[in-house]
Design brief:
Layout lengths: L2 H40 L5 H44 L1
């Protein structure tokens, strides 16, 4: 097997593994968010400022999560582009 093809398959495998792991993490975080929202709704003793802070925290970790996903996807795209340009250069 061609080493470049093998490496491309390894990259594809890692990309799929990342996607699956990321989806699992998102599911867990979303479930935790729903549980926290239920708790906050029932916590009459929690001031509005505290609720606002918790909502900002949720928004912040969601933004961080998406920024991380985008950064990883950009990395995978760069690796894939490297293989595409490498193959085009060899075929000339």
């Amino acid at each position: 097997m061609d080493p470049k093809q093998m490496f491309a398959q390894m990259v594809d495998f890692n990309k799929k593994a990342f996607d699956n792991a990321f989806k699992a993490i998102v599911m867990v975080q979303d479930q935790n968010e729903r549980m926290m929202n239920t708790f906050v709704e029932q916590a009459a003793w929690l001031p509005e400022e505290g609720k606002k802070t918790l909502n900002e925290w949720i928004s912040s970790y969601k933004k961080g999560r998406e920024d991380y996903r985008k950064a990883v996807e950009e990395g995978f795209k760069k690796v894939e582009e490297f293989f595409i340009t490498e193959e085009k250069g060899k075929s000339k």
